[in-house]
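Hey L., structure's done. Input below.
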Amino acid sequence: MKQFHRLTSEVKDLRLKSRNKFMKSYKAGFYDENYKSKERDFKWSAHEKWQEVLNKKEFRSLMTKKNYQEIALRALKVESSTVLLFSSEEKALHNGVKTPEGAEHFAKGLYQLLYGTASMEIRFNLWVECVGSLLKKQMRTLTWPMVTAFGFIAQPETHAYLKPIVTKNAALNYGFDYKDQPEPNWEGYRDYLEFCEQIKLDLKDLKPRDMIDVQSFLSVQGSSEY
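Output:
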């Protein structure tokens, strides 16, 4: 934690307390067996399943065949194996992709998010618009988990899953200047990714593997469960 000399003593104390809280829960850190069984394994299992059924080659093949509903079915099935979304959020997405048009919109938006060549900002903004459009007819509110769960499952080395209340609490407890954004947008996601990168830097001696480990650390800091 060499960067601590650039921080105020108050922030240093907060970050040390956060680290100690995590280590108290999981004595071996990110490689603790209890940590893996409670926080990591089910998320990694979902990622492995995604790599099996919607890796870039398979996704592109389904897109070429215009088999959009199969893409949506596979994506939602993998997500449903996790606890990342509330049942009401999952139901809203299922309703959104029931029509051929909805499934096509979802599949194309998700492919661009994960495998497109535009900047992350452009791809994320398009994905937010895509998911939002699927919910409009249902009068369903677009949420941060809805727009971050799929990227997180598919590419945990790049994308991070955001739970607003947990993140807000974790940032406060960590002494990180995180600007809470009630509605999903690029600025909020960019700031969150910066927060995650700071966590990775601060905990590099604990060897976090990806955003699964980072998000789990934040859960310990911001969730009432801990």
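Residues 2-42+159-222 form one domain. Residues 24 and 198 are 21 Å apart (CA to CA).

-- N.
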